[in-house]
Specification:
alpha/beta, Rossmann fold, seven-stranded parallel beta sheet, two-stranded parallel sheet, 11 helices, about 15% strand, binds nicotinamide-adenine-dinucleotide, binds thymidine-5'-diphospho-beta-D-xylose
Length: about 325
């Protein structure tokens, strides 16, 4: 199997490449990544020593000529590359429109031309948010209702995929996953920001009251689901990926503080994110019953402890980005 995978110098893509090369040692993966501020080539440096199975190409998914050349040589494309951070999208939406919309369009045109299987990685944020006391969860049929420039461009990219399936017969599937955690996540994101703050002697920062709920899933469980969909997913279908991991932000920070040897109340409240989605929750029945997937990392405390240990052991990976990341937050007052 020859795969083109986009955005693998980022969090989920890096873990995806490592998983694929472990589970399918005969496959070949080409990683197309622009190396934005969020991309770190060093995460897959050891894989670069095996050019028979892994190749890194630095480039933009909006570069139609390059994308077409790469798509022509593979059997399937898995599209992870995106501008992925809500806070950044509120400050400057333009790269989100470029990468998430034009980038997806560029890939779709290439897979259409070369009749190549395509899997589109998306987010549960396309469905908007739920009230804290709503007994319902997001389903494949929940209407789209995105809140931020990030989630609206992801919603737009999903719509492009659906249109390319219906109008041009592109062989595509879509997955919408909840919040991931695990190794190699950029330290701008909630969990690694607080872990690295604590390592640096800085108190964790909770937006608003900290009551917002996210449905946490370990990145490995997300990627295992993507491999199932690639192998057995029905063309044209959407699959929701989630591991029943609902927690509010306050609970997560308190658990992190405890795991790292601090008093559970040693955090600060900072100003809230404008338009902050209240709650995400995924019903993954379709994925579980139709494709037989189930999560492996069902103990959040253990998964979080392993993640803390990873950031402690890999300071050279995140330290160079810490100052610039916190400078951006300081400008936002958060
Ligand atoms: P990330 O920000 O860590 O990584 C994104 C990667 O894409 C980076 O390596 C970056 O250099 C690359 N990239 C950005 N613009 C590019 C362009 N124009 N051309 C080529 N490469 C480009 O993101 P992530 O958290 O790994 O998310 C990956 C995908 O998963 C995204 O599509 C995101 O919407 C989706 N997703 C993420 C989560 C989550 O919790 N992180 C949850 C659900 C879905
Ligand atoms: O310092 C912080 N304090 C805080 O309280 C940060 C960075 C975040 N938060 C809150 C905001 C959210 O309620 O924590 C929650 C998680 O925040 P993020 O890590 O920024 O994630 P979120 O906005 O929920 O989006 C994530 O999940 C869905 C990913 O970044 C998206 O790419 C994915 O689509």
């Amino acid at each position: 199997m020859k795969l083109l995978v986009t955005g693998c110098c980022g969090f989920i893509g890096t873990n995806f490449v490592k998983l694929v090369l472990r589970q399918h040692p005969t496959w070949h993966v080409t990683n197309l990544d622009k190396l934005t501020y969020a991309g770190n080539r060093s995460s897959l440096l050891s894989e670069e020593t095996d050019p028979v199975h892994y190749r890194f190409v630095q480039g933009d998914i909006c570069d139609a000529k390059l994308v077409e050349e790469l798509v022509a040589g593979v059997e399937a494309v898995v599209h992870f590359a995106a501008e992925s951070h809500n806070d950044n999208s509120l400050k400057d939406p333009s790269p989100f429109l470029h990468t998430n919309l034009i980038g997806t369009y560029t890939l779709l045109e290439a897979v259409r031309k070369h009749n190549v299987r395509y899997h589109h990685i998306s987010t549960d944020e396309v469905y908007g948010d739920l009230e804290l006391d709503d007994p319902d969860k997001f389903h494949e049929t929940t209407p789209y209702n995105p809140s931020s420039p990030y989630s609206s461009t992801k919603a737009g990219s999903d719509m492009l995929v659906r249109a390319w399936v219906r109008s041009f017969g592109v062989k595509a599937t879509i997955s919408n996953c909840s919040n991931n955690y695990g190794p190699y996540q950029h330290i701008e994101k909630f969990i690694p920001r607080q872990i690295t703050n604590l390592i640096c002697g800085v108190r964790p920062k909770l937006y608003g009251k900290g009551e917002n709920v996210r449905d946490w899933i370990h990145v490995e469980d997300h990627n295992l689901a993507v491999l199932e969909i690639l192998a057995k997913g029905k063309i044209g279908e959407t699959y929701l990926i989630g591991a029943d991991g609902e927690k509010n932000n306050k609970e997560v920070v308190e658990l992190l503080l405890t795991l790292m040897g601090h008093d559970a109340k040693d955090y600060d409240h900072v100003s809230d994110r404008p338009g902050h989605d209240m709650r995400y929750a995924i019903d993954s029945t379709k994925l579980r019953t139709e494709l037989g997937w189930k999560p492996i990392y069902t103990n959040f405390r253990d998964g979080l402890q392993a993640t803390v240990d990873w950031y402690k052991a890999n300071e050279s990976w995140w330290r160079p980005a810490k100052e610039a990341t916190e400078k951006k937050y300081a400008q936002l007052g958060r």
